[in-house]
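Team,

Forwarding the record for the chain on the shared tracking sheet. I've put the sequence and predicted structure together so nobody has to dig through attachments.
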Amino acid sequence: MLNRRSFHSLAMAGAALIAAPALRAQPKLEKSKVSIAVGGKAAFYYLPLTISEQLGYFKAEGLEVEISDFAGGARALQAVVGGSADVCSGAFEHTINLQAKNQFFQAFVLQGRAPQIAVGVSTKNLASYRGIADLKGKKIGVSAPGSSTNMVANLVLSRGGLKASDVSYIGVGVAAGALTALRSGQIDAISNTDPVMTMLEQKGDVKIISDTRTLKGTQEVFGGPMPAACLYAPAEFVQKNPNTCQALANAIVHGLKWLQTAGPGDIIKTVPETYLLGDRALYLASFDKVRESISPDGIVPAEGPKTALAAISSFDTTVKGDRIDLDKIYTNDFARRAKDRFKA
């Protein structure tokens, strides 16, 4: 028979198990220390990564994550290809470009369901701009050559009858350097993410000519859903470290869930002060603009990979659509499990 004390102890133990499901046995991580390379962490494009880091969601999964920030996605990708980082927080379309070069990488959790990239022309350098043809011979600022900002600019040029070789691309990053490059006249046009583009737009420094910061704008530019920021890694890494990849996906989806209900004040309190670029009001105006483009649950939409392939192969002759196996560039298995766990 249970006496009162032992009954109370059992009841307390039971309550603790119910209250702390995280204490239940979790699969052992193959790798608890993970290095993530990212190209322009201060951009809203990678806000879910920052939120998951700042709120301790990686630590909650038993991960010790080191995030290295580079000037653009292409540089971050080089770090992973070169072996100095395990995972890339980068643009989904890089997995397609890599497969075209016989390098197999796999995206395993989505952060953004729209590229959040706008292209604008300088109201100072190109005051009489009429159309894409006016960009011939001009300097276009991108986060880094080869990055997703470069890809969107290439797409916009190709639809206006210009080739990438008709312009000069200059890497300007995604923060204060990008603002300075445009305002000082070093570049004539810019393809970049928020908060940079909203800041330039609101001060009248640029005229927007293409915009993928909303789902509607993305549909107009790409003709379908376009997966954007994600965590991706060499396919071999994903196969060898399934529990680690699940933990990473869990942390990101936990962050996505938090972002669904976070208010502007919550965002300001959570991101580093330097991300605000000295203007809180404009930072929040930027967030309102891109909010719907953040993935709600980490899952790559079914039509998304086809949209990405069609966009890239339309201007990059090295990418042949019939030679790319889209099933190999991503998996939704980890994100689905994370979605179920966090009810995202």
